[in-house]
Input
Amino acid sequence: MHIVNFTPFSAFIGGALIGLAAALLWWTLGRIAGVSTILGNALTERGSDSGWRFAFLAGLLAAGLGAVLFFPGAVHLHLAAGGGELVVAGLLVGVGTQMGSGCTSGHGVCGIGRLSARSIVATLSFMVSGMLTVSVVKHLL
Amino acid sequence: MKRCVIAFLSGLVFGIGLIVSQMSNPAKVIGFLDITGSWDPSLALVMAGALAVFGTVYWSIRGPGAR
Output
């Protein structure tokens, strides 16, 4: 193992912004900023209290769109996978996050931040299985 | 309406955080998972930054999310 492309400063600042966004959502609306769960529930749940999910997702997309339009130099995107692979990967992420009741944001940030045992186990599980998958696909196959 | 404005702002700041930390780039995430090869530890620092802010707010100001 050798360390490459390590960007500790921008990573920490960006992480702090993500934490701020999660804190804002939790403090004001009492909601957990778990992106996979917000997306899943936005697609399946109907009711008077579902508008905030679409607003959150719109904000998320607006940040990406704004960055591409106004700060294209800040957006780095390197994709090795093709269209078909992305569809399969997206489906797997969807199934996995629904089974695991969350992803890196809900479990990894909000759950660990709340010291939830379930979230600590979930985060360790998907990090370790992700590392195993990359090791196998990249170095053994 | 006010709830939607707050949720939009939260999503916006979350998205800016993903761009600034470069976690919107799949190569950075795969780099973190490639611990047996060319390892990019950045994702750990993203989580550290996020946990520092979220954890501080959660454990100091109990909001409506408190059980």
Remarks:
- Chain B touches chain A through 57 residues (CB under 8 Å).
- The first strand of chain B starts at residue 38 and ends at 39.
- Residues 2-20 of chain B form the longest helix (19 residues).
